[in-house]
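Exercise: predict the fold of this chain.
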Amino acid sequence: MAQIKIHRERKTKKAKAKNCLFSALSKIIFTRIMNLKSAKEIWDYLKSEYQGCERIKGMQVLNLGREFEMQSMKETETIKGYADRLLSIANKVRLLGKDFRDVRIVQKILVTVPEKYESKISALEESKDLSTITLGELINALQAQEQRRMMRQEEVVQGAFHMKAQSTWKNKKPEGFSE
């Protein structure tokens, strides 16, 4: 009875492992591995397919590093969007097993953001040691400035619409209407 129980448990574990692998993969990859019989076969296939050799990993890291260095924030881009783009590249490097510290991302953001953020960066330089500021702190500080700037722009636009409406109303008074 004990052997039967152990056999069932092993069979269940194998099925669970296979199911976990199947559920973690995209449909395209699933179609490549669906005919493999065991979780070990699936794992070995994925390992050989996506791990690659050290030379290829090194080239991928090099290319990602080059891509990271070439990034700069566009005038119309948000801080969150830019930081997400940089973090995406950093995470790809990390997945390849190489170290990529957040300090490098912080430095990249400080150097490549548009001029409209210079006042906030200067204020941060005076209030904090920028070599110890975290990525989250920097992004939050720059996002706060970005939100204030957007609110001011909305007020200016609303004020312009209000002024335009007033001038239109004054120029097109109905007959017999006086102020």
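Check your answer against the key: Helices lie at 2-24, 27-33, 39-50, 54-70, 79-95, 102-112, 118-127, 135-171.
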